[in-house]
Design a protein that fits this description.
alpha/beta, 434 Repressor (Amino-terminal Domain), 12 helices, 38% helix, Rossmann fold, single chain, 350 residues, 6-stranded mixed β-sheet, 6-stranded parallel β-sheet
Length: 350
């Protein structure tokens, strides 16, 4: 067996399983005193526990025995729990996995995914069988030992980094193409792009190129992560000598921030993500997004198939987005005069 004496981290159930040459489930059965485990297997597990100095995560044990049906619980890991869009995604996934006999939990892993590895370890010890991962982490290889032990994971919206794993994605290039083409149909020619990554740029540029419009670097802002940055970019464009007449924004929260200075300006806006209550805003937002019910069903199918042994090599499922016109993307340039900026609510009075 491999000694853990020189390791700085607390040994896990997975370490015990590897040292004893058994599955994590077998270790769990030994720890719980379940019948049906061979005597020599029990002895190997107990020897590994003693050698590694393994101590059971009591909080995880209580969580498992008190609230989780063993093997039938899945978890959605998201960067921030306060994101309303992620809450809607959780609702869609919960309905989809319940149809397969599973239940769904949801927890936050931090804006940069800094808590993902710890959460996966603790929750898997607590009986969670699989994870839906919405992640901003730069490296997901911490999952590899868990996957080898039978844990399942499906990455949503963004693929796994530094490893191969099941993923369910939205066709972001096509979404940006649809948004830009929609604005072009309403006679916009100076269309700006704002987003956190470069993923959508190919679709945005393809639509411009198809209309004979060269890419203007001054109208592109990528690596925008926070709402204040989005609002600042919108204000800067509004104050430019020749401002854009419309903006494509990748992300609901960035769009809501950018919208504040745009109210009353007559500038068009299309958002590459569904926005909760988009039709109730003072500027009802035109969006391009995938159907949450379709996305949830496909994601649930991918993860459940992996858990139940019906999957082969890692899958990459791509879901097409659809445009919903609500008003902000249907404004023609120059037809609305700038008005005063509202100071309070973005929501209509009912």
């Amino acid at each position: 067996m491999t000694s853990m004496s020189d390791r700085s981290q607390r040994p896990t159930l997975w370490d015990v399983a590897r040292a004893a040459g058994v599955s994590a489930k077998t270790v769990s059965r030994v720890l719980n005193g379940e019948a049906g485990v061979a005597a020599d297997t029990t002895a190997r597990v107990q020897a590994a526990i003693a050698e590694l100095g393994f101590e059971r995560n009591e909080a995880a044990r209580q969580l498992r025995t008190g609230r989780m049906a063993r093997g039938r619980s899945l978890c959605l890991l998201v960067p921030e729990l306060g994101d309303a869009g992620r809450a809607e995604l959780a609702g869609s996934l919960a309905s989809a996995v319940e149809a397969h006999g599973y239940r769904l939990l949801m927890t936050g892993s931090g804006s940069a995914g800094e808590r993902e590895a710890e959460l996966v370890q603790n929750l898997s010890e607590a009986g969670v069988a699989g994870f839906f991962v919405v992640s901003a982490a730069a490296d997901h290889r911490y999952l590899i030992p868990h996957l080898r032990q039978g844990l399942a994971a499906a990455f949503l919206l963004h693929p796994a980094a530094q490893m191969q794993a099941d993923s369910v994605l939205v066709d972001e290039v096509d979404a940006a193409r649809q948004a830009t083409q929609h604005l072009l149909r309403f006679s916009h020619r100076r269309i700006a792009f704002l987003g956190p990554r470069h993923d959508h740029l190919a679709g945005y540029q393809d639509a411009l190129s198809g209309s004979g419009i060269p890419l203007d670097p001054d109208l592109v802002r990528t690596a925008v992560q926070e709402a204040p940055e989005a609002e600042a970019a919108a204000r800067e464009w509004l104050a430019a000598p020749v401002p854009p007449t419309a903006i494509v924004v990748a992300g609901a929260w960035l769009a809501l921030a950018a919208m504040r200075p745009l109210l009353g300006s007559g500038m068009g806006l299309v958002v590459l993500e569904d926005v909760p209550a988009a039709d109730l805003l003072k500027m009802p937002l035109t969006t391009v997004s995938a159907s949450l019910s379709d996305f949830g069903e496909k994601a649930a199918e991918v993860l459940v198939n992996r858990l139940e042994g019906r999957a082969g090599p890692p899958q990459r499922v791509v879901v097409r987005a659809h445009l919903v016109a609500r008003g902000s993307g249907e404004v023609r340039p120059g037809l609305n005069r700038p008005g005063p900026e509202p100071r309070r609510s973005w929501y209509r009075r009912r």
